[in-house]
Amino acid sequence: MSEVFTKSMARNIYYGGSLFFVFLFLALTFDTMKTLPQQDNRAAITPQVALGKRVWEENNCIGCHTLLGEGAYFAPELGNVYKRFGNSTEAIKAFIRSRPANGIPGRRSMPQFNLSEEELEGVAQFLKYTSEIKTQNWPPNIQG
Amino acid sequence: MKYQSQKVARLYFMAAIGLFTGQILFGLILGLQYVIGDFLFPAVPFNVARMVHTNLLIVWLLFGFMGAAYYLVPEEAERELFSPKLAVALFWIFLVAGALTILGYLLVPYSGLARLTGNDLLPTMGREFLEQPTITKLGIVVVALGFLYNIGMTILSGRKTVINMVLLTGLVGLAVLFLFAFYNPDNLVKDKYYWWWVVHLWVEGVWELILGSILAFVLVKVTGVDREVIEKWLYVIIAMTLITGIIGTGHHYYWIGTPGYWQWLGSVFSALEPIPFFMMTVFAFNMINKRRLNHPNKAAVLWAEGTAVMAFLGAGVWGFMHTLAPVNYYTHGTQITAAHGHMAFYGAYAMIVLTIISYAWPILRGEKAANQRAQVLEMWSFWLMTVSMVFITLFLTGAGVLQTWLQRYTDDPLPFMVVQEKIAPFYWMREAAGVVFLIGLLVYLYAFVARGKPAEDATAA
Amino acid sequence: MHAITHPLPARQLKGDLAVWILILSELLVFGLFFLGYAVAARRHPALFEAGQATLDTGAATLNTLALLAASAVVVMAIERLERQRTREAGRLLALAALLGSLFLVNKALELHHHLALGITLSTSLFHMFYLGLVSFHFMHVLAGVIVLSWVARRCLRDTPPELNTVWSAGAYWHMVDLVWVVLFPLVYLL
Question: CB contact, 8 Å: B126 with chain A?
Answer without folding.
Answer: yes
